[in-house]
Design goal:
CATH superfamily: ATPase, nucleotide binding domain
Number of helices: 2
Helix content: 10-25%
Structural class: alpha/beta
Number of domains: 1
Number of strands: 6
CATH architecture: 2-Layer Sandwich
Distance between the termini: 23 Å
CATH class: Alpha Beta
């Protein structure tokens, strides 16, 4: 089943929520804002999962790392209500 992941990236910690195609939460976690901590949390769900996270001034390390691991990424901006 198709999975979607949202990551709210904060300075020290991030919130991760993974839902299925029906919108049912299948996993939720709060982890350290460090690439390996995030990767460890999401990797059991496979690289087919689409990931979106908020565009902020510190997103690049997460985006670059996840892309290099083969994940499909999108970015959103909550005040503009847009997702790319």
């Amino acid at each position: 089943m198709k999975l979607y992941c949202g990551i709210d990236l904060g300075r020290t910690h991030c919130e991760i929520c993974i839902i299925n195609a029906d919108g049912v939460v299948v996993h939720r976690a709060r982890v350290e804002s460090a690439f390996l901590a995030i990767l460890k949390e999401i990797s059991p769900f496979g690289i087919e999962m689409e990931i979106v996270f908020e565009s902020c001034n510190t997103w690049y390390w997460l985006g670059d790392g996840l892309r290099q691991c083969g994940y499909k990424l999108g970015m959103s901006h909550t005040s503009l209500k847009l997702c790319i």
